[in-house]
Amino acid sequence: MANLFLMFYLSMIMFLFGCMVFVSNRKHLLSVLLSLEFMVLSLFIFFFFYLNFMKFESYFSMFFLTFCVCEGVLGLSILVSMIRTHGNDYFQSFSVLQC
C-alpha cells in the first residue's frame, strides 16, 4: 500500500517537472516535444497504478497509449516539416504570419 502511494507521488512529481520544462523558455521544438512526451508518460504511470488500485480493467491504458503514440507521431511529423522548410527547429527562425 505504501508503494502504491509512492508511485502516485512519483508520477505527480514527474508531471510537474515535465510542466516546468514545457513552460520554460526553450529554443528548440524537439525539447518541447520531449517534455510533452515525458508528461504523457507520467500520466500513463499514474493511470496505470490508479486503475490497478481500483480493480478496473486496464483497457483504458491501451487506448491511452494508442493516442499517445499518435500524438508523438504528429509532433515528429511537424518537426520534420519544419526542418525541411526552415532548415532548423528554432522557434525564432519562422514567423506565424508566413504561409
From TrEMBL:
Keyword Nucleotide-binding annotated: no
Superkingdom of the organism of origin: Eukaryota
One GO MF term: NADH dehydrogenase (ubiquinone) activity
Enzyme Commission number(s) from the entry: 7.1.1.2
UniProt keyword Electron transport present: yes
The protein's enzyme class: translocase
Stretches that traverse the bilayer: 6-23, 30-53, 59-83
Chief location: mitochondrion
Keyword annotations: Electron transport, Membrane, Mitochondrion, Mitochondrion inner membrane, NAD, Respiratory chain, Translocase, Transmembrane, Transmembrane helix, Transport, Ubiquinone
Reaction catalysed by this enzyme: a ubiquinone + NADH + 5 H(+)(in) = a ubiquinol + NAD(+) + 4 H(+)(out)
Annotated localization: Mitochondrion inner membrane; Mitochondrion membrane
Its biological purpose: Core subunit of the mitochondrial membrane respiratory chain NADH dehydrogenase (Complex I) that is believed to belong to the minimal assembly required for catalysis. Complex I functions in the transfer of electrons from NADH to the respiratory chain. The immediate electron acceptor for the enzyme is believed to be ubiquinone.
Protein family per UniProt: Belongs to the complex I subunit 4L family.
PANTHER family from the UniProt entry: NADH-UBIQUINONE OXIDOREDUCTASE CHAIN 4L, NADH-UBIQUINONE OXIDOREDUCTASE SUBUNIT ND4L
Protein name, as recorded: NADH-ubiquinone oxidoreductase chain 4L
Gene, per the UniProt record: ND4L
